Amino acid sequence: MTHSPAPLRVVQWATGTIGGYALRSVHAHPGLELAGVRVHSPAKVGRDAGELAGIAPIGIAAVGTLDEVLALRPDCVLYMPLAFDADEVCALLAAGSDVVTTCGLFHHPASTEPALRERVTAACAAGGSTLHSTGSSPGFITEAVPLVLASIQRELTGIVIDEYADLSRRDSPELLFDVMGFGREQTAVSEFLAPHMLSSFGPSLRLVAEALGLVLDDVVAHAELATARTEVRIAAGTIPAGTVAAQRITVNGIRAGTPLLTFRATWYCTPDLAVDWPIGDTGWHISVRGDAPMEVDLRFAVPLERMAAVSPAFTANRAVNVVAAVRAAEPGIRSSVELPQIIPRLG
């Protein structure tokens, strides 16, 4: 008779859009046990975790402090707050809990700020624990997918990953208008777009290139804006003619003077733009140039009206599915190329 190993005890840290989805996935996972939930809002402390995740009560009350999480002695913490806190993460690691995070600071450990990397590495050594950053984008689409597509190449001259997001049915006026700058004059849109995307996606491109033995010379990014030809009414409000209706941010990994790996995000509120940009349905298109060239479409088969409810799965599920591999990994900061292929346990 064979015996299944004991479930891994997991604490869900934060219950926002992605964290709430991850909580539900952990609770339903046959190889994981939800050991606790950490929340940040005082109004959520003490409430049943199931209630916070939109499911039936499960008998676990949410806690509000790091010490309460440490007392649970979890095997792994799914760390998904709005902002990364090194003090919290290092305390968890030093206490022996692995950490899987959707905060994208560690996709390529060598790109992590040296003082932070050294501090986290020391905490992992002290606790015999492992830290792993993951997600859908960056993560799945910038690491797992290109490495699979490269597995049938012997000559590779380039990979271009296009991400498309139709935001016309996203009823989030603060996000679209105030944060992202849609519906504003081009000169009023923040210049943070290119630097932010460079820091978010550059490490993934470096990781993939190094895994292929093609180290990049540089990673650069630039942002472009496109305006609406006519007034557009979207779920979040109105975009006047002549104001920003689409953004395209390109991150290029350069080798020998030319782009080898490219990630290009096109986020738009209408395809009726004053410039002629290729506009795809929400999802990804990957172009592989090599001796086995390919064009691959990965489209989200979800009505736009349901994207806000479904899209958290793309990030949350990969984090949940990688817990067992992280638990089995050697202590330290481990990237996706150091872990085995992620195969979900579904039954």
Automatic annotation (TrEMBL):
Ranges where the 2,4-diaminopentanoate dehydrogenase C-terminal domain occurs: 201-340
Top-level lineage group: Bacteria
InterPro entries: DAP_DH_C, NAD(P)-bd_dom_sf
Pfam family, one: DAP_DH_C
SUPFAM superfamilies per record: NAD(P)-binding Rossmann-fold domains
Protein name: Dihydrodipicolinate reductase
